[in-house]
Amino acid sequence: MYRDQEKILVSREEIAAKIRELGETITREYAGREPLMVCVLKGAALFFTDLIREIDLPLTTDFIALSSYGNSTRTSGVVHLLKDLDADIRGKDVILVEDIVDTGVTLNFIRGMLMDRGAASIRIAALLDKPARRKVKGLKADYVCFDIPDEFVVGYGLDFSQKYRNLPDICALSPDVYEPKK
Ligand code: IMP
Ligand code: MG
To answer: How far is CA 114 from each of CA 28, 91, 117, 156, rounded to the nearest angstrom?
Structure first.
């Protein structure tokens, strides 16, 4: 059965509590400013919509889509821009909202691109961080909700082959699913 393939790593209650806390932190740290919140599609979509509702500031939103993954559980290392931002970000305080920092290749690519366009500041808010997998030296998210071990996770926006995004909790996917036994 669909639901038998995972074990819960971070529950929906833990996610909600952490996001409330992060919303308060961002509200406090960006007081007097109007940050542009950028959602990195598709994985961060659920995190993004929950997070912006916990921020009490006149923020604006935009969306960007990239792909590096194909259908495997390991990054290809090549990032493609699938959908660019609509907004001109010159002079804006940008907060990039990402589902997970894994090797760091994706975030490094977006951050470089947005810096070249003249953002006033760029910070990264990541739902998850897998520090053990980092390839890009020195790449750190400014806000991280949960550090997790090197396990492939799905749910709460994260996918395997575009599935499992609708699970309300963050779950470790059984390797049987992505490494089927012959
Ligand atoms: P990076 O470029 O290696 O840091 O990979 C970042 C992207 O890979 C994330 O935005 C996710 O879309 C995807 N990714 C990395 N690890 C996982 C995982 O455990 N589950 C689902 N997607 C992942
Ligand atoms: Mg993905």
So the answer is: 24, 11, 5, 26
Q: Is 69 in the pocket of ligand 1 (CB under 6 A)?
A: yes
State the DSSP code for 163: B
- Contact at 8 Å (CB) between 140 and 133? no
- Please give the distance of CA 2 from its chain centroid, rounded to a whole number: 24
Does the C-beta of 106 come closer than 6 Å to ligand 1? yes
Please tell me the distance from the alpha carbon of residue 165 to that of residue 182, in angstroms, as a whole number: 27
pLDDT tens-digit series, residues 3-22: 656 799 999 999 999 999 99
Token couple for 123: 């910070």
Which residues have CB under 8 Å from 55's CB, separation 6+? 23, 26, 27, 30, 37
Report pTM.
Answer: 0.92
DSSP, collapsed to helix, strand or coil, labels residue 144 as strand
In short, whether 127's Cβ falls inside 6 Å of ligand 1 is no
Q: Is the pLDDT assigned to residue 27 strictly greater than 70?
A: yes
Cα 32 to averaged position of ligand 2 atoms, centre (Å): 34
